[in-house]
Amino acid sequence: MYDSSSSLKIPSSPQEEDKAEGKVYGNVFAELESVDLPLGTSLRSVYDDQPNAHKRFMEKLDARIRNHDREIEKMCNFHHQGFVDAITELLKVRADAEKLMGQVSDTNRRLQDAGREVTAQTEEVIRCRVQQRNMATTVEKLQLCIPVLEMYSKLKEQLESKRYYSALKTMEQLENIYIPRVSQYRFCQIMAETLPKLREEIKEISMSDLKDFLESIRKHSDKIGETAMRQAQQHRTFNSAVQKQVTLSCAKPLYGLNGRTPLHHNGLSTDTAEEEEIDEEVLTAQDLVDFSPVYRCLHIYTVLGDRETFENYYRKQRKKQARLVLQPQSNMHETVEGYRKYFNQIVGFFVVEDHILHATQGLVTRAFTDELWNMALSKIIAVLRTHSSYCNDPDLVLELKNLIVIFADTLQGYGFPVNRLFDLLFEVRDQYNETLLKKWALVFRDIFEQDNYSPIPVDTEEEYKAVVSRFPFHDAEIEKQQFPKKLPMSQSVPQIYSQVKEFIYASLKFSESLHRSSTEIDDMLRKSTNLLLTRTLSSCLQNLIKKPHIGLTELVQIIINTTHLEHACKYLEDFITNITNVSPETVHTTRLYGLSTFKDARHAAEGEIYTKLNQKIDEFIQLADYEWGMAESDGRASGYLMDLINFLRSTFQVFTHLPNNNNDHAAMSGKVAQTACMSACKHLATSLMQMLLDTELKQISMGAIQQFNLDVIQCELFASSEPVPGFQGDTLQLAFIDLRQLLDLFMVWDWSTYLADYGQPTSKYLRVNPSTALALLEKVNRGMKDTSKKNNIFSQFRKNDRDRQKLIETVVKQLRSLVNGMSQHS
């Protein structure tokens, strides 16, 4: 930039000063003439530099202006002629331009007239082209809208045809693909607003279908379970038949309930053949129930993102249905159909759950089904334990067991653990055995009531073989006898033996299909048979023996019967061994306790014989009518005593005629007869002694003592006549030794000997107790006093009476001292 301080410095000479000043102002004028530079700085340098600078500057400026005017004038003078020529030329051109303008206007007029039609046609063309463009745009937009409308129409059709899963897919395509392309249109907005409502509607409809499905499977559970259990039973029967066919050559036959083996043909039982005749069409849960609603509903809720809600609802409803299915009818225990329906419903429920578990992913889980099954299993066991306790029919309990086995096998085939059910079967087995015991108690009771308690008569060889085929009886002596002949036991023995075998058959039926070893089955049979023998049959025998109408003859026959049944126990053990094919030498084999049962029954019968004999003796004793104050005896035994002795003789003849064709029978009958005879004599002697010592009897005459002595003599004669063989010496007479010595003491009136020898082992009256002698002597003393009072008219006898009275008083004192000494010593 120009520096004003340096530029305005004036030189010392006038020429240099003028030259420099002109140069400075020339620069200022150049700056002023330049329109781009600011003027303020240049003008400030002019006025602020030196005094009078302004004036000189104005002078220089005027000079500069004049120079420019001269130059402009020179330039104008130089170009003026050309300007004049140009103006002249322009004037000439104006005339031509006006002429041309007229021509142009005319041409334009004519052109306008000619183009007006073209313009009209052009506008028509433009209008058509606008319409064409609009139509093309419309077609384009319609091509975008038509797929939307087609998809929406497809959606409506799918909803009407209840293809809800496809409808949801269509909605998804509408929302994500089609509607965004034409979202600016109102109908699309309406569609978009409608789709959520349609989804909710689909959810409600699918949920309604699910509820219908749940109701349907609840109704069809019975049929589903029946089909599944029938298939399981057919499969088990087929496997069992194949196994039997394979092992037919070495296996033992399993016996039926009534002692009959199932008929076989080509290794297959007739039961299997009947099963094979059943329709072979295999029905599954899908054949009986349409599962599409649950699949559809699951897919719908999955697509809608609400799968968890659906799963929770389904599981909750199925739990409720499970509780309903597990609730039995109150009278279920009355018929097998009640149990079958109960099992069918449960099986149907879990078959459906198993199908849902494998056909869907995650709707139900193994943990959920296991939880349901554990809950159901506890309830089932409790229900069966309760209702089975009400069953009194063994056939019903057996059918229940078969149902439980099929039920367990069916569910085990679907992967459910059933060990607890087989454990329950052991409880049911105990209940079954109890019902069998009750049933066989009635059977035994009927057999005992219908028995005539007499040996079995056989007239022909066929009759003998028929009896032997039912009961293992072998006796060489009886086989040698000619027909007709009699077997020692009564008709009830082979019947009891057959019924015990029937019981074993029935007990075996329960052990089938329990997946137990032969040893366990053998143990079960033996234990149940032991219960039958030791509890049921023993109780029936005890009750039979105690019945009042059973006489001595019947009791004797019962003793014989129990002996034969006792011998048959080993055959029952062999029978069980043949059934189970388990060797009796096995370490843990249970033995039958029939021996003790029949021994106890025999002992009870023997005791009852002794009791009844004593009761009969008491009845005869009650008929005694002694005249205790008689002066002299009748000279013969009392009538009641002779009747009693005749009864005893006839009774012991029954023992004498017991069948003793073998040593066992002879020993048994002889022992029972001897014991019964000895017991009767002892009881008779005791009763007679009690009659003499009765406290209500205050006095006895010597005539009554004589009469009583005659009766005792008859008793001794009966004992010495050997009413029952086998007694040694006077063993039986010793039963009356106490009476004999007591009566001899009074008949001989040998008190001095008694008192002198008392306490000596060789005493003649060793069996006479001082207290007994004292009691009887006091009664005789009172009797004598009473007789003396009646006969006091004979004075010569008074001294004798006084002497005897003194003797009696002396004896009484001595006897009392003996009694007192005995009491002090004791």
Explain how this protein is built.
InterPro entries: EXOC6/Sec15, EXOC6/Sec15_C, EXOC6/Sec15_C_dom1, EXOC6_Sec15_N, EXOC6PINT-1/Sec15/Tip20_C_dom2. Component of the exocyst complex involved in the docking of exocytic vesicles with fusion sites on the plasma membrane. Keywords: Exocytosis, Transport. Residues 1-21 are annotated as: Disordered. Residues 60-229 form the Exocyst complex component EXOC6/Sec15 N-terminal domain. By secondary structure, this protein is mostly helical. Helices cover 75% and strands 1% of the residues. It is built from 28 helices and 4 strands. The chain has helices at residues 4-7, 14-33, 39-49, 53-160, 164-181, 186-246, 270-276, 285-288, 292-303, 307-325, 336-359, 366-388, 394-413, 419-450, 461-470, 476-480, 492-511, 518-546, 552-567, 569-580, 594-622, 639-656, 663-692, 702-720, 737-748, 751-757, 770-790, 798-825; strands spanning 264-265, 268-269, 456-458, 485-487. The strands form 2 sheets. It has a two-stranded antiparallel ribbon. It has a two-stranded antiparallel ribbon with strand order 3-4. Strand 1 and strand 2 (268-269) form a beta hairpin. Helix 11 packs parallel to helix 13 and helix 13 (394-413) runs antiparallel to helix 14 (419-450). The longest helix is centred in the N-terminal third of the chain and has 108 residues, at 53-160. It is rod-shaped. Residues 1-11, 247-280 and 793-797 have low confidence and may be disordered.
